[in-house]
Amino acid sequence: MMQNRTHTCGELRLSDAGKQVKISGWMENVRVVSANLAFVVVRDFYGTTQVVAETEDMVNTFKGITKESTISVEGAVRERDSKTDKMATGDIEIVPAKVEVLGRCQHSELPFQINRSREADEAQRLKYRYLDLRNPAVKKNIILRCNVVAALRKSMTEHGFLEITTPILTASSPEGARDYLVPARNHPGKFYALPQAPQQFKQLLMTSGFDRYFQIAPCFRDEDARADRSPGEFYQLDMEMAFASQEDVFAVLEDVLPPIFAQYGTYDRASSAPFTRIPYNEAMENYGSDKPDLRIDLRVQDVTAVLGGCGFEPFAEGNLVKAVKVSDFHETRKFIDKTLADVETVSGGKAYWFRMDENGELVGGISKFVNLIKEKVVEALSLKANDFVALSAGKRDAALKTAGVLVKTLGAAVPGHMDKEQYAFCWIVDFPMYEIGDESGELEFCHNPFSMPAGGLDVLLKAERGEIDPLTITADQYDLVCNGVELSSGAVRNHDPEIMIKAFELVRLGEEDVKAKFPAMYNAFTYGAPPHAGIAPGVDRMVMLLAGEDSIREIIPFPMNKNAQDVMMSAPSEVTQKQLDELHIQITKHEE
C-alpha cells in the first residue's frame, strides 16, 4: 500500500465490492447529471476508474476541481448498474467519502483534449509533451519501447554478450554526418564530439580481448529529420563479435529479432531464419531500392531494349527505361494521376504509364507511342487484360529511384499486391566498396570505410594496378531491412592495417592520413587485432515498426521537431556571455 492509494485506477474488480479503498490520479472528466449526482473519471498510469458523487456537497467539490488536477479519492467500492467493457474496471465504481486535491491544474482550458491529443497540431503536442504523454494511446508506445529494450537486453545477454558502455564525449571523426561539438573549457580552441556511433570503441573492445559486446547506444548526428529518423539523437542495439564472420552476425540477429517482433509487434507474423538475402545490385535492379519491401509482389523490369526506339523523347538513346507492371488493375484516371504525381514528388523523377484494357488494347498515357511496337511490348512484359504499366526513364540512378518509388507506392495503394500484416526481413549483401562521388567526381568509399573488401588485399592490389575496376569491388557489408525500412548497417571489419592503408590509398588518403584520422584504432590494430564483425539495428526504427507508426516521433518520449528544436525545453537556447567567456567562444553574426 502506498501513502496516497491502496489500489491503482486499473486494479479494482467486482471481487473488491464492499471494500474501503483509496485511489489517486488525474481527474479526467466530470459529468454533472443533477445537483446531487455526478460521474467522475480518475486516470493514472494503470487505467481509469469511475467515481460517483451522490450528494450535493460532493458534486460541488468535484465541480470546483479543474480537469487534469491530481486528486485522491477515498470511498467504498460497489457494483455498477450499467457495466462497460470500455475500461478494465467497468464492473465497479467508487462512492467517495473524501476527496483531496494533490496537485491543482491551474488552467481552465487545456491545449488539447488529453484522450484526443494525437489529433492535435504536432507543434502543440511537442510543446506540451507531458500532457500528450498522459494520453494512454501515446503512453502505450513508450511502454512498448521499454518492453522491447528489456527483451533485447535479455536476449543479447543470453547469447553471451556483455553490455559495455562507451564514452559520450569523444573525438570528432569523419563518419559521414555532421558532428555535434562540445567545447573543452580546459583546452581552449579544442572540442569534444558526441559520438555518431560507438564504431571505433566497439572495435577497440574486440582488440582489447572482449569477445561479444553490446549496448543500447545513444548516437548523435546533426542531420535533418525524416519520418524514420529523428534529428539529434537516436538509439541503436550496437553489437560486435570477435573471431566472427558475416554468418555469425546473421545467426545472432535471426535468433534475437523474430521472437521479439512476433511478441510485441502489431502484426503476429515475422520472418523466420534464414532471412532472404539479396545482393545489392540485384535489389536495385529488381526493386529499384536497397531497402525493398518484400511484402509487395511488384518488380522492376528493364525495357530499354524494347521501348528505347518507340519515339517517345524521354526514352531516347542514352536513357534507361524501367517498367513496373501491376496486374488486375481497375483504378480510375484520377487515381493514376494522383499516384504518379506523388511518385514524382518523392523521387524527383517523372513517371509515365499505359494500360491494357479488357479487350487487349493498349490505352491511356503514352499508349500512342507504345502501340507502334505493341507486339514486342506485350511479349516483353507478358501483358494480359487489365494490366497497368508504370514507367521511369533517365540515367541509371534516376530511373531506378523513380521505379523503386513506383513499386512501393503502387504496391501499397493497389489492392492485392501487398501482404501488409507481417514483418518481412531481408539482408542486403555485397555492397559496392567504392563509388564515384556526386560532388568530387572521384573515387570515394560507398559506405563504411572500415569494412573488409571481399577478396582482401589481393583485390585492392589488382585495382591499384588497373587490372580490375575498383567500382567492381564489393565489401563484406550488409544491411538489415524490414518492411522497406533499413534497420541497420553492419560489416565484417577491416582489422588488418596493411589492408586498411591500401583501401584508403585508392581514395587518395595515405598512411599518415589514416593515422591522423583514426589514431587509436590504427595503432591498436598494429598490436594484433582479431577478425571481427558487427551490426547496430536502430531501436527507434524497430519500435516504430512494432507499434505500426509512420513517424518515429511517436515512439520517442521527448522528441525534437523537424528543425531539431525541443520546443518544450526551448532548446537550443542562448547562453550567457560568462559561459561563452569560460569556453573561449565568441559569437559572430553571419552576414547575408
Major sheet description: 8 strands, mixed
Strand content: 15-25%
Overall strand count:
22
Biggest sheet, strands in spatial order? 6-9-10-22-21-20-17-11
Characterise this structure.
- ATP binds at residues 221-223, 486, 538-541.
- One of its GO terms (molecular function) is ATP binding.
- Catalyzes the attachment of L-aspartate to tRNA(Asp) in a two-step reaction: L-aspartate is first activated by ATP to form Asp-AMP and then transferred to the acceptor end of tRNA(Asp).
- The protein is an alpha+beta fold and 592 residues long.
- It is 29% helix and 24% strand.
- The strands form five sheets. An eight-stranded mixed β-sheet has the order 6-9-10-22-21-20-17-11, sandwiched between helices.
- Helix 9 (333-347) packs across helix 12 (396-413).
What is the strand and helix layout of this fold?
Layout (H helix, E strand, L loop, with lengths): L19 E15 L2 E8 L2 E7 L2 H8 L6 E10 L12 E12 L18 H6 L1 H4 L3 H23 L3 E2 L17 E3 L7 E3 L5 H9 L4 E10 L10 E11 L3 H19 L11 E4 H8 L12 E3 L1 H4 L12 E7 L6 H15 L3 E6 L5 E2 L3 H4 L3 H8 L6 E7 L1 H18 L11 E8 L1 E3 L6 E3 L10 H9 L9 E9 L2 E8 L4 H9 L5 H7 L1 H7 L6 E4 L3 H9 L29 H6 L10
Parallel strand pairs: 6-9, 11-17
Antiparallel strand pairs: 1-2, 1-4, 2-3, 4-5, 7-8, 9-10, 10-22, 12-13, 13-16, 14-15, 14-16, 17-20, 18-19, 20-21, 21-22
Helix pairs in contact: 4-6, 4-17, 5-16, 9-12, 13-14, 15-16
Pfam families: GAD, tRNA-synt_2, tRNA_anti-codon
Catalytic activity: tRNA(Asp) + L-aspartate + ATP = L-aspartyl-tRNA(Asp) + AMP + diphosphate
Keywords: Aminoacyl-tRNA synthetase, ATP-binding, Cytoplasm, Ligase, Nucleotide-binding, Protein biosynthesis
